[in-house]
Amino acid sequence: MLQIIYILGKLGSTAVGTMRLDVIASKRYLEINKDTGELFVSEKIDREYICNSKNPSCFLKMDVTIENPIRLFNIEVEIMDINDNAPFFRRDTMHLDISESTSPGERFSLPNAVDPDFGSNSVKNYHLSENLNFALEIQTGRDGSKFADLILKTSLDREKQAVHNLILTAVDGGVPTRTGTASIIVRVLDVNDNAPSFEKAKYVVDVMENSPIGSLVIKLNATDVDEGSNSEIVYSYSLYTSERTQKMFNLNPENGEIRVKEMINYEDLKLYEMEVIASDKGPNSLSGQCKLTIQVTDMNDNHPEISIKSFQSPIKEDTPTDTVIAVVSVSDKDSGDNGIVDLHIPDNMPFKLRESSDNYYELVVSEPLDREKVPEYDITFTVTDRGSPPLSDNETMTLELLDVNDNVPQFPQSFYTIRVMENNAPGALLSSLTAFDPDLHENQYLVYFIIEREIANTSMSMLFSINPENGNLYALKTFDYEIEKEFLFHIEARDSGSPPLSSNVTVHIIIVDQNDNAPVIVSPWRAQGSVVEEKIPRSTDKGSLIAKVIALDTDSVHNSRITYQFLQVTDATLFSLDQYNGEIRTMRMFSYRDPRHQRLVVVAKDNGEPALSATVTISLTTMETAVKAYSDMTEEPLEYDIFSDINLYLVIGLGSVSFLLLITILVTIVIKCQKPKPSKAAPPSRNSVISERNSTIADSTLVSNDAYWYSLFLAETRKGKLVVRQPLPKGSRYIVSSIPRGTGLTDTSDSAASTLQV
């Protein structure tokens, strides 16, 4: 604001010349209007720049020169202050360090604000930003300046607020007012007034057993809201922590890490408790504490255990079912599912497990036992826990079975057929009949014997013998097929158990025929070693039956098959011999050139190996007298003179034959009434044959069927041979007698009947 002296106006209105305003300073703040003499501001005037702000007044001095006439005037222009400057602080930010232990009411001087303006426009007041801990107290200096002191109203707590940010505002008295601000940063200095603290008063942590040594269990973190050394923490065990716990776990004093120090075993100790202290490093050390519980988590590291409390072995094979033979206990040191165990035995055994109490099992017989099938059992007890993965253990016990005599001796066959060649040597080994008994010891020791049975008043023990120890069967006599063809009896094998068990087997002895009987020629009849004399008419026709050779063989069918051959013949073109039925027939009529005497030697040979044979010599004499021959087994009456010698002979022969027939019938009746003993049979004679049924001899030979023996026809009646017919009941023996002419009845004693079996 400028105050221009009034005189200048007047000067301007009276001046006739030129006015000049001399600049006092380097700047021309004012100019004068030469025409009107008005003084005006040409440049902005800053009172605070021109004058010291402490001076109450400020003048701007200049000289005005007027020409024509020249005049000099001194002009002072007073610069009036306006509130054009705001208060300001020399430092925008002020830092204060105050200990948190400072008592309330403590005063802290603050730098005052500066305002270039003067008077009422200068700093008149201070304001502090709103807070709970500090207040301002305004002071007035001697020069009237205003300054402020910072007063601590309440105690500071660094841990709650370590830094207080305040705004100090300086306010001038101008209109409008102007302000200036500065930041006051109050840093609260720490005092060790806080003890370290843990997040929790009690920690519970799980650790797996068998954790590797050095593995981290937990990292405890205690905090101290103090700072510096007051907040540096050292960890340690309290006196309440057991030595065993301190031995198992290592506590790092710097960072609070707790690590495994030794191998942890759940089965030794399941829970560890400790108390950890956190202490700061302040001058007056403070400390905090917490409790830590370490729970050991079970790991399936223990195999289940089996304990055989009782085991009964051996046992009898007839042990009843549900009999307890073993008591087994199982255990597992682990816990939870790891400690729950299951006991098993193989499924394919006649035993089962029965739980009797907690972790106790009984092994009982579930099925009948049979030592002969399985003499012993290897019973494997397998126990498995329910952990993951499951662990198991097993133990094998051997159960032996004692034998019980529960098996009868067994022969490999139920029926034995033994073929024995006749004419065996007495004492010959026939067969070995060995039975088997699956029992043991005395229960399997077998004794063999023949079950007594009589055949034809003869005991089997007289015919056969068996070794009681090994079952070897021996023949005690020589067998003759023609007398005894077979035997049927039983052999028993008995063990030595108590009570003894036995079984028997049927033995069928078949006597095998040997070719030990030579054929016997029964027709034509002849004395021992004599030649058969036959006479035939010379006029015999071709094909006429001259003679028939009949031979018998008492061997079996195969060996008794007879074939006939000429051994010697006078003229081979005159006679033929049927090799099967022994018939000798003429092949042509006799001629005058043929010799009167013909000699025929016939051999009868059986079918055995080697073949046996018998021979007969027939001497044929041809006669001129006409005699009609019989042929082909046809019985025709002979024509002869009643007064001839032949008739006389026939009458005598007929009487003899009738007498012989009567004797034969009587003998047959006696034989049938008696039980014959085959062993006393006599060898066959040349004069008679006794044969059983089913033997057959064709034509004029010995013929047999199931009803009758037919007549034996002899073609040559010149010898006075008669045919005797003897019908007998079916199945009886038959006697055929050949009576030579001229022997009379007395000759029949030489031809007593003999028995032959074919």
TrEMBL record:
UniProt keyword annotations, A-Z: Calcium, Cell adhesion, Cell membrane, Glycoprotein, Membrane, Repeat, Signal, Transmembrane, Transmembrane helix
Domain Cadherin as annotated: residue spans: 25-89, 90-198, 199-306, 307-411, 412-521, 528-639
TM stretches of this protein: 648-671
Pfam families named in the record: Cadherin, Cadherin_2, Cadherin_C_2
Protein name per UniProt: Cadherin domain-containing protein
Lineage: Eukaryota, Metazoa, Chordata, Craniata, Vertebrata
CDD domains: Cadherin_repeat
Gene Ontology biological process terms from the UniProt entry: anatomical structure morphogenesis; homophilic cell adhesion via plasma membrane adhesion molecules
GO cellular component: a single term: plasma membrane
Molecular-function GO term, any one: calcium ion binding
Compartment list: Cell membrane
Membrane topology: Single-pass type I membrane protein
